[in-house]
Amino acid sequence: MHCFSFSDREALRFAFVVLALVALFVVGCSESSSAPADGRFEPIQEATPIPRQTPEELGIEPFIGEAVVPNPTDPKNIPDHPILNNDGDSRIHNDHYNTGVYDRPGPTGPAIEVISHQLGSLTGICAMMAMLENGYVIASCFIGAAESGIRVNLVMFDNENLDIVAQRDIGPRPFIPNSSGGAYFTMDAEENIIIGPPNNLQQYHIAVNDGAPEFVLDKSMDMTPYIRENALLQDSVIDYEGRLWFMATTGEVGYVNLETEAVKIQDLAGDLEECPTADDNEALQNSIAHDEDGIYMVTCAALYRLSADAEGEVQVDWRAPYESGSEINGILPGSGTSPTLFGTEDDLVTICDNADVQINLLVIDRASGTEVCKTPLFRPGESATENSSIGYGDDVVVANNDGFGGPFQPARTMFPGLERYRATRDGDGNPTGCELVWKNDDAIINSNQLATESGVIWGYGADPDVEDEDHFYLGAHEWATGEEIFRAYVGDGLPFDPITGQVHMHPDGSFFMGVIGGAIKMSDVAK
Predict the structure, then answer these.
(1) For the domain 12-35+49-524, what is the CATH superfamily, name and number?
(2) What are the domain boundaries of the chain?
(3) Apex CA 244: angle with CA 241 and CA 246, to 5°?
(4) How far apart are CA 338 and CA 349, in angstroms?
(5) What pTM did the predictor assign?
(6) pLDDT tens for each residue of 54-78
């Protein structure tokens, strides 16, 4: 078990050579014991289902459409990260490129089984989930109760039945309707977990002692000396050279040198003055993408690439401003998307802006920060997104979230829409613009993930044609055409609302997802 450490004591240096760069990471912990003989851990909390109405009680069909006939596409082609997990479980949007792509299959239907586990008396949403090599699922969950408030928890679920086999309360979190302060984590190739709840950078590993797993804290670094008062950490990630990058909601972006414990900062707070109505602790959101050249992140005014210069200082390589709009169309001002890196030449990055009336897909050259294309999305007056795009080859897929009223508001008010665009190139491979591949104005999925082994775009959303209550469905759409293959009923009402969150795909083809009421699993019924 290899662990990052914020201390040099007893540290060992591991070198990784990637594109002539050496990535260092510091190792300092080792606890080991054996798992049970059958490989299954005893639960510390058996799953209590989230109450839901059955399709029969609602008078609806549990499955609409046809079973999936796999039409595989090529596996995603992005560079391996020298330190992080490269199987699709390292980051909130699957990988360090934020591709939203899994080289996994997904279920086929027509019979979809739903298993759930209710967490907390007020809320139990698990924003990010990742799959361990042994099949178990780990998650970062905001669990809320009247007596304790909101607490950030690391949870390890049994992937077969959603029983909890390990859990650790890692701190309180203010009741703020956004993803900062512990929603996202990073998992490395050794299954170490790096998370920031709410202003400490922490690392955990999973140890098995006396046949039971537990989350063990390796180190915690207080970041309050480096960020503004009341700031929350939004995201953190290890780069190719072992630097631990972070960003705070108040505009500070930087990294920790894990060998020296030195912290380097670039303050982007000036951008936040352009936010329409953002509070200081709600302005800088979404997640970081990165490649060998730097990190990519979004403020409410611009897309940035930052890197460490020859002296180790944080520098702004380029800044690409966008239309931030005069209204908040999602959780916070500005773009609702995290940057997604893509391109057959590994050279592009995309976000969506927040332009009034109709938002735009923006494709930017990664080297220069220059605009490749700006393309309006969806329909005037029915156009917004709070979810990052799929980036696959030269193609981008965006889901519509306009009408989203924020957490704990009805989801059925969101307008439908799913669109796919392709970056065009000249004979020398240089990007020249973007073209529409297809659009589906009726797609109800509010998030999107591509499964290359089946050639299916998967998502989750509420039926906008049902009045008075939310009926949530798992939806499957063809990658080639955008046409709906099927939708399968999952649950009803606020407890099954994911707040536009995404489905997380297991290697066995099942899906896991965090919803306001807790955690759910969606899979083919065993035959």
Answers:
(1) YVTN repeat-like/Quinoprotein amine dehydrogenase (2.130.10.10)
(2) 12-35+49-524
(3) 135
(4) 10
(5) 0.92
(6) 999 999 999 999 999 999 999 999 9
